[in-house]
Specification:
Blueprint lengths: L7 H26 L1 H33 L1 H9 L1 H9 L11 H4 L9 H13 L5 H26 L10 H15 L12 H32 L1 H19 L4 H18 L4 H6 L3 H18 L8 H8 L2 E6 L4 E3 L7 E7 L2 E4 L6 E5 L4 E2 L1 H6 L6 E4 L3 E7 H10 L1 H17 L3
Antiparallel strand pairs: 1-8, 2-7, 3-6, 3-8, 4-5, 4-7
Helix pairs in contact: 1-2, 1-6, 1-7, 2-3, 2-4, 6-7, 7-8, 7-9, 10-11, 16-17
The chain binds adenosine-3',5'-cyclic-monophosphate.
The site of adenosine-3',5'-cyclic-monophosphate has 18 residues, from strand 5, helix 15 and helix 17.
Length: 423
């Protein structure tokens, strides 16, 4: 189990708490403005909520205790007030002649803070895109705000007195949505002074909320795929540079092709750069994971021992070549050898008139110059997009020294290839 991942039982409890809290947040204000519902259900709901929230308080206290004295102290300092306040059955004072006292019931809604904290945790589990969670949470708060605003409108008796039940609520929500969205048709308007004051407040809130929501949604959409956005920006920067330095058009196209391939094959990441940022132990583990694919593909590694594979894996560097790229040129000094992970290359003579061979997935090249300390014996060009792993000369030398049977294998290949070229 990953760190930060919760066991099923905890997740279930969290979900139930969130659902019950949302239910309470909708029901409690409704019960305050709809007396019919209130008398019928309020007491039962009140008791059930008290029971559940009390159970939640005990559960969370025990969880905190289980985590140690620090967590317990933290709980006793902060959340206990919220969980405790939500437990008090303020609804039972509903019969009081003082209307204002009934507002105490709303205090239980502090429990909504639990919804926020649950949503925050959901962002960390990485199953759901954090931006999607943020968007959902934003929508939730907007809808809940609209609900509260509508209840306030009903409480101020601003709704058409002829309407009853859900029709009252519908009209209140309609007024809320036209006001909050700043559309303001003006077909439902305040009459009394308190209604007017309330409307002014909601209008100001609406204007602020509107800007806030638009700004948030714009940033959320941009962030849903941060990788893509950043990649596009990077490409934009590179292209600006290429244009500024008047790089020939076909070369510019090749650069863009490279990045397109990089995006399609590995979401734009240049592995080496990412790995460089990580501490050594993590880098090793990740390199092992990424490069094990190539080890499986290359037949000469099949019988090799684990230590050899470990040595090789950590020193492989992934690179990409585009169609027709020169990977090796005859006559050059060789400083590395190559393993093909995906793609195909052609081995040709210096004048490119003779094709000696075509190499594909799992095959290697560039070993002759390293083994014999000579110059490259042939030219190698990519036939298509190639994912290739490079192994530098130092590592190569070390491996050849340390693992004689592996060295023998490579020597045989090299010898055979030299013969084919008539060397
Ligand atoms: P090197 O000489 O370092 O650089 C060119 C490479 O082409 C060479 O190593 C071999 O790996 C490869 N090569 C040369 N001839 C052949 C061949 N006949 N078949 C396959 N690969 C070859």
């Amino acid at each position: 189990m990953h760190k930060g991942q919760m066991p099923r039982r905890k997740v279930m409890w969290e979900v139930v708490t969130v659902v019950v809290t949302i239910y309470a947040a909708i029901e409690i204000p409704l019960g305050m403005v709809f007396p019919v519902i209130r008398t019928a259900t309020v007491l039962i709901v009140e008791l059930l909520l008290t029971g559940f929230f009390a159970a939640d308080l005990v559960y969370r206290y025990r969880e905190a205790c289980a985590q140690g004295p620090e967590a317990r102290a933290r709980y006793l300092k902060s959340w206990i007030w919220i969980d405790g306040l939500a437990t008090i059955p303020f609804g039972t004072v509903i019969a009081t002649p003082f209307r204002a006292l009934r507002l105490l019931r709303l205090l239980r809604l502090v429990k909504l803070l639990r919804v926020s904290s649950a949503a925050n945790r959901l962002k960390n589990v990485q199953i759901v895109n954090p931006s999607v969670v943020r968007m959902a949470v934003l929508m939730f708060w907007i809808l809940l705000t609209a609900h509260f605003v509508a209840i306030g409108w009903i409480a101020l008796d601003a709704v058409d007195p002829e309407l009853v039940g859900s029709a009252r609520y519908l009209q209140a929500i309609y007024w809320t949505s036209t006001t909050l969205t700043t559309i303001g048709y003006g077909d439902l308007t305040p009459v009394t002074a308190p209604q007017t004051i309330y409307t002014i407040f909601i209008q100001i809130l609406g204007a602020g909320l509107y800007g806030f929501v638009i700004g948030n949604i714009a940033s959320l959409i941009a962030n849903i795929d941060v990788a893509k956005t950043q990649f596009r920006e990077k490409l934009e920067r590179i292209n600006t540079f290429l244009r500024y330095r008047a790089i020939p058009a076909d070369l510019q196209t090749r650069v863009n092709d490279y990045y397109e391939y990089l995006w399609n094959s590995r979401r734009g990441h240049e592995e080496a750069t990412i790995l460089d940022e990580l501490p050594l132990s993590l880098r090793t583990q990740i390199a092992f994971h990424i490069n094990s694919e190539i080890i499986e593909k290359v037949p000469i590694f099949q019988g090799a021992g684990e230590q050899l594979i470990r040595d090789v894996i950590l020193n492989l560097q992934a690179t990409v070549f585009l169609p027709d790229d020169y990977i090796v040129r005859k006559g050059e000094t060789g400083r590395e050898m190559y393993f093909i992970s995906r793609g195909s290359v052609r081995v040709v003579s210096g004048d490119e008139q003779t094709v000696y061979a075509t190499l594909t997935d799992g095959q290697f090249f560039g070993e002759i110059a390293l083994l014999l300390a000579t110059e490259r014996t042939a030219t190698i060009r990519a036939n298509d997009y190639c994912d290739i792993y490079r192994l530098d000369q130092d590592t190569f030398n070390r491996i050849i020294e340390r693992y004689p049977s592996f060295a023998e294998h490579i020597r045989e290949h090299a010898e055979q290839r030299r013969q084919e070229m008539g060397l």
